[in-house]
Amino acid sequence: MQRLTNKQIILGITGGIAAYKSAELTRLLKGAGADVRVVMTPSATEFITPLTLQALSGNPVHLHLLDAEAEAGMGHIELAKWADLVLIAPASANFMARLASGQGDDLLTTLCLATEAPICLAPAMNQAMWKDAGTQQNTEILKKRGIKLFGPGIGEQACGDTGPGRMLEPEEIANNTADQFETGSLTGKTVFITAGPTREPLDPVRYISNHSSGKMGYALAEAAVEAGAKVKLVSGPVNLPAPARMERVSVESAQEMLEASLQDLSLCDIFIAAAAVADYRPTAISEHKIKKGSEEIMELHLVKNPDIVATVASNSPKPFTVGFAAETKDVLEYARGKLEKKNLDLIIANDVSRSDIGFNSDENAVTVISATEAEELPQASKRQLANRLIEKIAFQYKAATSN
Ligand code: C5P
To answer: Are residues 106 and 214 in the same domain?
Structure first.
C-alpha cells in the first residue's frame, strides 16, 4: 500500500448497494497516502451521501458535468488530467455498458473518456446481471481497451442470491490499486528538506540574508516525491511556487526553520539540508525602524544561529542526514570536515566560486561525499542533478539502514 503515497486517485462511485463500502475504501486509500477525489453518479447519491465522502476524502465531491462553479475550479478536464488512476467502485452494469459504448453523458463517463490515466473497475451487481450476455460482452470490450477489472467476487448477495457479482472487499480493492503503481527508491519513506535562504530581521524593514534561490532544494523535493517519498519542504523566502504533492512549511528566520525542522522529526527517515542558513542574527530586533545617524560607521551586534542540520543529527535516533557544503576553495577538504563535525551521513559539496553554477543558476555540479568515498556528479540542470542525488541518497540510506 506504500506505493499509494502522493498518488492522485479519482474514486468514481456508481449506484449500487455496495456504494456503502466506498466510504471504507476512501479511508483506506487516504490512509495509504493517496489524495482522493470522489466523483459520484446521481444514482450513487441515493445509496451514500456526498457529505460522508467529502469528510472522508478531505476534498469536495464532484457530482455534475455542467456545474459552473466546478468548471471554474476543477472541471472534468482538470480532473481527468489530475488523476494518476481512475478507480470506479462499485461499477454498476449500467455504468459498464455506458463506458463500453463510449458515452459521455455524465461527469464520470466524460472523465473516463478524457483521462489518459489507467482506469480500474470493481464491478458490483446481481449474479444474473453479471452473467448476462450484454454485461459479459461489455466486460470483454472494456478489457480490450486496457481497462482493469478487480473482481467481482463470488458469494452471498444483498438481494439474497448467491454467485458472482459481489464487489471485492475495500481492502482487496485498495491493495489491487496499489499494485498498479511501481515502487520508487523512496516509496514509503518520509523526507524533510530545508531550502532557500533565511532572513534575520534587524528592524521592521531590514534583514540580513544569504544569496539562495531555493532551486536546488525545491528540485530535490520534487525528485524525492517522484521517488515515492512523503516530503515536508521547510522553505525560507523564495520566488518559487509551492510544489504539488508535498507539504511546504514557509519560514523566515533560522530559529523558525529549526522549529519547523524539529517538528515531527521522529517521523523523518531522511533529512536533507539544502538551505542557506544565515550563520548569525542580530542580538536584538529593533521595534522601530533604525534611523540614519550622523556617524559614518555603524556597529551591528550579532549572535550565532543554531546549526539546524547539526541539531537534527544530534538526535537519537537520528534520521539519515545529508548536508550541503558551498565552498570557494579546498572544497573537498572543507566538506569532509563538515561531514564529521556535524555528524552527517552524506555531504554534497559544490564550488560556489564558479559563476556558471550554484546560487541563482539553473545548473550545478557537485561531489557526493560519505565517510568512505567521494563521487563527482558532472554539471547538469538542477532538476536532473536532483534526480541523480536522490537516487544516490536512497542507495546510501538503504545501505546504512540494512545493517
Ligand atoms: O557550516 P555551513 O553553513 O557551511 O554548512 C552548510 C550545511 O549546513 C548546509 O547543509 C546547510 O543547510 C546547513 N546549515 C544548517 N544550519 C545552519 C548553517 C548551516 O542547517 N545554521
So the answer is: no
Are 11 and 124 in a shared domain?
yes
Choose one of 199, 218, 258, 308 to mutate for the ligand 1 pocket test, by most ligand atoms within 8 angstroms of C-beta. Answer: 308
Across 184-196, b (16+ Cβ under 10 Å) vs e yields bbbbbbbbbbbbb
- Domain endpoint, select from 179, 213, 234: 179
Question: Which distant-in-sequence residues (6+ apart) come within 8 Å of 290 by Cβ?
Answer: 202, 203, 206
Mutate to test the pocket of ligand 1, among 257, 277, 341 (most ligand atoms within 8 A of CB): 277
Q: Which residue has the cell 451514500?
A: 48
Range of the domain at 395: 190-284+297-401
112 is catalytic: no
Q: State the cell numbers at 131.
A: 452473467
36 and 161 share a domain?
yes
CB of 214 sitting under 6 A from ligand 1:
no
Q: Round to whole Å and give the CA distance between 358 and 372.
A: 25
The answer to whether residues 70 and 102 belong to one domain is yes
Total H helices, total E strands in the chain: 14, 19
pTM: 0.87
Asked if 129 and 197 sit in the same domain, the reply is no
172 with 194, same domain: the answer is no
Per residue in 185-223, pLDDT (tens digit) is 999 999 999 999 999 999 999 999 998 899 999 999 999
Note the pLDDT tens digit of each residue in 93-111: 999 999 999 999 999 999 9
Residues of the chain predicted below pLDDT 50: none
Measured CA to CA in angstroms, residue 318 lies from 272, 337, 363 at distances of: 12, 20, 31
Find all residues with CB under 8 Å of 184, minimum gap 6, and list them: 3, 226, 227, 228, 229
Domain tally, the chain: 2
